[in-house]
Write a structure and sequence with these properties.
- The mean pLDDT is 95.
- 41% of the residues lie in helices and 15% in strands.
- The chain is an alpha/beta fold.
- It is globular, with a radius of gyration of 21 Å.
- The strands form 6 sheets. The chain has a 5-stranded mixed sheet with strand order 2-8-7-6-5, with helices on both faces. A 3-stranded antiparallel sheet has the order 9-14-11. A two-stranded parallel sheet has the order 1-10.
- The longest helix is centred in the middle third of the chain and has 20 residues.
- Strand 12 and strand 13 form a beta hairpin.
- It is built from 15 helices and 16 strands.
- Helix 2 runs parallel beside helix 10, helix 3 packs parallel to helix 4 and helix 7 packs across helix 8.
- The two termini are 29 Å apart.
- The chain binds pyridoxal-5'-phosphate.
- Pyridoxal-5'-phosphate binds next to helix 3 and helix 4.
Length: 420
């Protein structure tokens, strides 16, 4: 492999200050200095009183949904990420995606395609009743929907609806800094604010958040669960102790808390955010110029290729996204990931029938933070454009083995002959 664009999660290069923090880490079991530093940084950023460290995002999700999920409950979001949906469904609850219509159309250049459709949210509340909605989630940026940002105006509207129906609002805030910078760039009236100021307002609208620190925390491992509710936090503390670790380290070492505290501070540096978003934009616009359809405009952490448009000769039940992932790897040693029917579809492998499909067949080229330079990105552009010229050679796939949940992590495939 030459370039690894499988994920931006846990793949950041840590700064010298983060590595220095690793060496300074206080490894006392309880009440370590590193814990207090971490807690203070997160409190200052989010305003949340309860800060629970976890080993990564999905551990925060598991604790939260074990406490508030369960059969009969319905949990809306713009788009749930796969582990979030998985944890909700594992608890017996139903996960519902309510992103705006523009968010499902790759060619639509809406500035905030991650926004929640307020009318759909109100209709859901009217249909299932607020008592059955223990929380409303908003994913910033919206990873499963193309890494697209959510506007402050939309967050305020979601907040107002939630408040009216006494439904807590939680952010899935893995990429809060990228979302804040896209708000600064795209939302009228926000240009003169610092990303930090915008991020703080985003958190101020929420009652809690789950965070995988492996994204905008700029670390290789770590997560956070944040909340304002004292009673819920007391229950979450107990589960944390039961399954992750004591409340002042939660499944991590003191040095990890140091690295996170530093990462959550550095990530709001405006020069860093400008460069990062510019390189994602550069990749996306160059692919578009070569006729490769992507989710427009390019999002915060990744470029999403419309695989159905890239391989029109491969039907959706033959997984065009996965075929493109294999093609990129074979052709140029570039590793990417399918976000389409493999990740979110449900089908019966035995009978070959399809139960449900996501609205788009995408391939995500996720850019690790502070790792690749412009020449690497140029290589990705050239190689993808070359493959586009030979796309007729890509072949569809069939799943031969898959687990019942989160199948994209371990599914096995067989390539089909060109005629099938
Ligand atoms: C939006 C979103 N939520 C949750 C997660 C889960 O985080 P983790 O991989 O740290 O468990 C991810 C990871 O990619 C994500 O992108």
């Amino acid at each position: 492999m030459i370039i690894d664009l499988l994920t931006d999660s846990g793949t950041s290069a840590m700064s010298s200050e983060q590595w220095a923090g690793m060496l300074r880490g206080d490894e006392s079991y309880a009440g370590a200095r590193s814990w207090f530093r971490f807690r203070d940084v997160l409190r200052d950023l989010t305003g949340m009183p309860h800060i629970l460290p976890t080993h990564q995002g999905r551990a925060s999700e598991r604790i939260l949904f074990e406490l508030i999920g369960g059969k009969g409950k319905v949990i809306p979001s713009n788009n749930h990420f796969d582990t979030t949906r998985g944890n909700i469904e594992h608890s017996g609850a139903e996960a519902v995606d309510l992103v705006i219509e523009e968010g499902t159309q790759p060619r639509h250049r809406h500035p905030f395609k991650g926004n929640v459709d307020i009318a759909k949210l109100e209709a859901l509340i009217a249909r299932v009743g607020s008592a059955n909605i223990p929380v409303c989630m908003v994913t910033v940026t919206n990873n499963s929907g193309g890494g697209q940002p959510v506007s402050l105006a939309n967050l305020r509207d979601v907040r107002a609806v939630c408040q009216q129906h006494t439904i807590p609002l939680f952010l899935d805030a893995c990429r809060f800094a990228e979302n804040a910078y896209l708000i600064k760039q795209r939302e009228p009236g926000q240009q003169d604010r610092s990303p930090r100021d915008i991020a703080r307002e985003m958190f101020s609208l929420a009652d809690g958040a789950t965070i995988s620190a492996k994204k905008d925390g700029l670390v290789n491992i770590g997560g956070v669960l944040l909340m304002r509710d004292d009673a819920l936090a007391a229950k979450a503390d107990n589960l944390l102790i039961l399954t992750e670790g004591f409340v002042t380290y939660g499944g991590l070492a003191g040095r990890d808390l140091e690295a996170m505290a530093q990462g959550f501070t550095e990530v709001l540096n405006e020069d860093y955010l400008r460069y990062r978003l510019a390189s994602v934009q550069y990749l996306g616009e160059h692919l578009l110029r070569a006729g490769i359809q992507i989710v427009e405009p390019p999002g915060g952490h990744a470029v999403y290729i419309d695989a159905a448009a890239f391989c029109p000769h491969i039907p959706r039940e033959r997984y065009p996204g996965q075929a493109l992932v294999c093609g990129l790897y074979r052709h140029a040693g570039i590793r990417a990931v399918e976000i389409g029917s493999v990740m979110f579809g449900r089908d019966d492998i035995e009978s070959g029938t399809t139960a449900s499909r996501p609205p788009m067949e995408l391939v995500r080229l996720a850019i690790p933070r502070r790792v690749y330079t412009q020449s690497h990105i140029d290589y990705v552009v050239e190689a993808t454009v070359e493959l586009f010229g030979e796309r007729d050679r890509l072949r569809g796939l069939k799943i031969t083995e898959a687990p019942p949940v989160l199948r994209h992590f371990t599914a096995k495939f067989e390539e089909l002959p060109a005629t099938s």
